[in-house]
Amino acid sequence: MRSSLFRHPRSLRAFHWAPRSIRGRVTALVALLSMLLLIPSGVLAGMVTRQELADAGWLDARRAADLMAAADRAGRLTDPVVTSSVPMVNVIQVVGPDGRVRAASPDAAGLPALSTVRPTAADPQRDLQVCRAPLGCVRLSAVRVTPAAGSNVIYAGGPVHPGIKTGVFDALFAVQVLALIALAAWAAWKITGRTLRPVEAIRAELAATNVNDLSSRVPEPQGDDEIARLARTINGTLERLENAKGRMERALAAQRQFASDASHELRTPVAGLRAQLEEARLHPADTDLPALLDRTLSDVDRLQDIMADLLLLAKIGGDTPLEVCEVDLAETVRMEVGRRTATDRVPVELRLARGTVVMGVGTQITRVLTNLLNNAQRHAARGVQVEVRHNGRYAELLVSDDGDGIAEADRERIFERFTRLDASRCRDSGGSGLGLAIVRDIVRAHGGSIEAGAADTGGARFTVRLPLYHRPPGASPCAPATTHRPMAPAFAAH
Q1: How many Cβ atoms sit within 10 Å of the Cβ of residue 405?
Q2: Read out DSSP for 197-233?
Q3: Distance of alpha carbon 413 from its chain centroid, rounded?
Q4: Which residues are within 8 A (CB) of 1 and not within 5 positions of it... i.e. 6 or more apart?
Q5: What is the dihedral of CA 133, 136, 142, 148, to 10 degrees?
Q6: Helix H segments across 18-112?
Q7: How does pLDDT run across 151-192, given as a tens digit for each residue?
Q8: pTM of the predicted model, to two decimals?
């Protein structure tokens, strides 16, 4: 425990001095790698360069010595020796077997033999460096003229040039290595900064995003690198969060609307029931019991209808798993109209196109037709017309009457729950006030649309559009039970 406590502050200090940003860490890493690679390379390059320059000096000395040896063998040597053939060589001596200088260049005139080293017949050439006043240090190449025992030896060379000293090369390559390391670190700093610039923009946009407004999106850089994919993933996540928030808000709004509608619409019949019962309790002798029972049962029926419709609206707006199947719209209309022929107030004219198939919940499609027929029967004067037809990729169900019609300003508002208009046709008697709202929610849940307009007969016309469905070969006519709301995207694919 004590050892870990003593080591902890040291580790904190090391962490404190480490770069905190990715940009700084990458730059430090590049600088470190550059030092590990360039410093040994610079040292090796200096060593190779110095060796190459030294070898070049030796080569000049060897060449001059070989030329003098050839001249000696040909008997063309002069005293003093001419050195113009090799410019970098200015010191030449021809030394006999007795050690006496027989010929020399002007710079070596009057000097004793520069070296006592004499190449042998087996090794006729030797390289050596001597320091002798007043010449200083000289690189010499000693070449034996002939293999004979009494052969002369040619010493040729030049002084060691001060420009190739070790310190000069070390300083030169050290400056070069430092410049390359600095350039690599600067390039890493700039490139990393430019690469991470979108990350800072993403961070700033996310920092400004709050739960009350999820509509903002982070900027997406061009390309398909990791940062671009990260930006697209973040935007996808924000979009899903926004959609989830919207669904949650709609669900909460639906719950609040349900509670508001229920409390508003149930208050009147409940108050009527209470008033009638209290009056009967106060004046039992004056109460007509059969009439009271009829009135209260009528109010109970209205309560029951309102509750059933409200529960249906909540079920449509929820995520209850429902099985969807093929629904022949023309056949559904024919069966429903035939079932209610005896009870309808006015006759119904049918115009049905065969093979008009949609995918949906059969009971809910039937409820749409029933509500529209009920609405048309209440407001028709002489007749109702129902038409099923194809319109491109959609099936259309049109229910028309010859009543008073609907004002253009109210054609959207009538689909709201418990809407009461001033016109006489919108003051329904016996209904719950939720019929058209139910129709709208069912149609929307099936990926369709509904609109109110004017009929050719002068009354109102309701047009329902649902996506046509064509069953793929080998597919089942029904889909497994699934949530009802995601049906719309499935239809859009057909």
Answers
A1: 20
A2: HHHHHHHHHHHH-BTTB--------SSSSHHHHHHHH
A3: 42
A4: none
A5: 0
A6: 22-73
A7: 888 888 887 765 455 566 677 778 888 888 888 889 888 888
A8: 0.48
